[in-house]
Fold this protein.
Amino acid sequence: MNKPLIFITNDDGIHAPGLRTLIGVMKQLGDVLIVAPDKPMSGMGHAVTITSPLRVNKLKDEPGHIEYSCNGTPADCVKLGQKAILGRNPDLIVSGINHGSNSSVNVIYSGTMAAVLEGAMENIPSIGFSLNDYSFHADFSKCEPYILSIAGNVLQKGLPEYTCLNVNIPAVNGSPIKGIKVVRQAMAFWDEKFEHRKDPHERDYFWLTGVFRNRDEGMDTDEWALKNNYVSVVPVHFDLTSHKTIPLLRDWETGNLN
């Protein structure tokens, strides 16, 4: 029987340890094709490249393992990999393992999640994996059994149409991970400010800083799960419609404004 074909990317770049761990886990489930940015692309969101050429560099071509670096964003990597390099849909798209959490509002800014949302737009089962540890040398080993389990379930059972998964894994802090929780995205936000600074030439510049504020006290959120040492799994789709608001605006409708 043919093995599943698994497409792998990330936003931390082709040499990131999290990507290397993810490749090793996915090779237990199928053949892998990697197209990942040639440099870190964190915080790029769903940016795509439209004003400069996209280029790829083949780094490895072995049975069951083909690997490219790309000068584009994570979303570019998925588009280019699917439509130009592969020429067909893979059986699964995975992105990560991100160095740092993509829970709550971070999903909006995340290049990791932009890649899997791009997959969901093509109705390809897709999963983004993140570890709540920002260190480049974070310990990813404890992630492996959970990634293997979640990805294996998606390969076997699929996902609803146009839906992907945002998976966040608590940092290894001496306490064992308790298990997996399927939860919702917490209503938490960044309290941002811009520091006004001077460079060595006395020119003004600004540096974005902020503090993450969780105002959501629910026990069914990704933030609660991570705080309590569970792997959080949030189903995500790209439909940003506020469906509950539509009935509230119905009386604004009119057939003729003349």
Summary: The longest strand covers residues 188-198. The mean pLDDT is 92.
